[in-house]
Amino acid sequence: MRYLTTLILLLMYGAVSATPAVMAPDTGTIVKKQSVSAGVNYGTDVSFFGRTSQYRYPFLSSDVIYNSKSGLFAYGSIWKVLASEPTVDELDLGAGYHYRFSKEFKGDISYTRFFINDKSQIIKSSATNDINFKNSYDWKYLKTSATLDYLFGRSNDFFVTINNSKYFESNWSVFDDKDYLTFEPAFTMIFGTQNFVQNFANNHDFYNPPGHDGPPMHYDPNPPPDAANQNQQFKLLNYSFKLPIAYNRPHYTLEAAYKYAIPVNVQGALVNNHESFFNLTFYYVFY
Fold first, then answer.
1. How much is the pLDDT for 155?
2. CA within 13 Å, CB half, 138
3. Are the C-beta atoms of residues 165 and 142 closer than 8 Å to each other?
4. Least CB-packed of 102, 202, 231, 280 within 10 Å?
5. Nearest C-alpha neighbor of 42 from the set 62, 23, 22
6. 76: buried, middle or exposed (CB in 10 Å: 19+, 13-18, 0-12)?
7. Cα–Cα distance, 240 to 261 (Å, whole number)
8. What string of H, E and C letters represents the secondary structure of 112-173?
9. Which of 124, 125, 123 is nearest to 219 (CA)?
């Protein structure tokens, strides 16, 4: 399918965008035939449900996704955080099901299990399990999606992510008649609890990674006394603006994406500030 390689790329955005960093393919990846895709991704920092660690952690990740004709899918991902001590920081495994009520109304439900090295200093290291339920509706002039996430294990949290985007495709080619460019600017808001932040703060020593001297840049040594209670409250956590630009051919996509994120209602030991993210991803699809 013409749009497959572009839409499947959205799998990677959780890591650097304001959308959850849960490994679940976008609903646009529903296909009528069996496919396997593999990709690599570089990001300038790891973000998890609108929160980042005390340092910027550039990362590399690699993913494999299997889509069946029936709508069932399975996926795996491996992560290496470039400033982190472990050789491999994280392994994610998951599975789910795509469904479609109409051409405009699509969705998926999935489960992800996170295996994260105990020495990893990224804020995502407090995660263990996630159930993800997403529905999207294309209004023609705007695509709206609502995603529900239940995070459980080391910490229990609930999130609602609202995303509005608009897809554009070039009507001209770059090198030949088999390639094209795509753009999909988006605005995202994340609401939820943030017990995972408190869990991370309680179980990490905030050591200085290579190249950093002095106290941790984003660590508040005197958090509010009611921070733990505040983290249990359901609030707006983050909103962001994203602009991805992709070069597409029949079997692969190369995309660069810029995102500007604004965290709000930050509680606990971590002090998150406005931040720019850059993501570069390559995906190849076999079908």
1. 86
2. 13
3. yes
4. 102
5. 62
6. middle
7. 4
8. EEEEECCCCCCHHHHCCEEEEEEEEEECCCCEEEEEEEEEECCCCEEEEEEEEECCEECCCC
9. 123
Chain segment 1-38, per-residue pLDDT in tens? 443 333 333 333 333 333 333 333 332 333 456 899 99
From CA 100, how far away is CA 269, in angstroms rounded? 42
CA–CA separation, 22 vs 14, rounded Å? 6
Sign of CA dihedral 105, 132, 84, 197: positive
Instruction: Return the residue matching tokens 């359901």.
Output: 234
Instruction: Write out the two tokens for 62.
Output: 């690699």
Give kind and range of the element (H or E) at residue 103: none
Place of tokens 């509010």: 224
Q: Bridge-partner residues for 187, per DSSP?
A: 164, 241
Give tens-digit pLDDT for 71-96.
999 999 999 998 778 889 999 999 99
H helix intervals, the chain: 4-8, 195-203, 227-231
- Strands (DSSP E) found in the chain: 35-43, 47-48, 51-52, 59-67, 72-81, 90-100, 105-116, 129-138, 143-152, 157-165, 168-169, 180-183, 186-192, 235-248, 252-263, 275-286
C-alpha–C-alpha distance, residues 232 and 173, integer Å? 50
Write down the pTM of the prediction. 0.82
CA end-to-end span of the chain? 9
Torsion of CA 48, 54, 59, 61, to 10 degrees: -30
Whole-Å CA distances, 83 to 118, 149, 196, 204: 15, 28, 21, 15
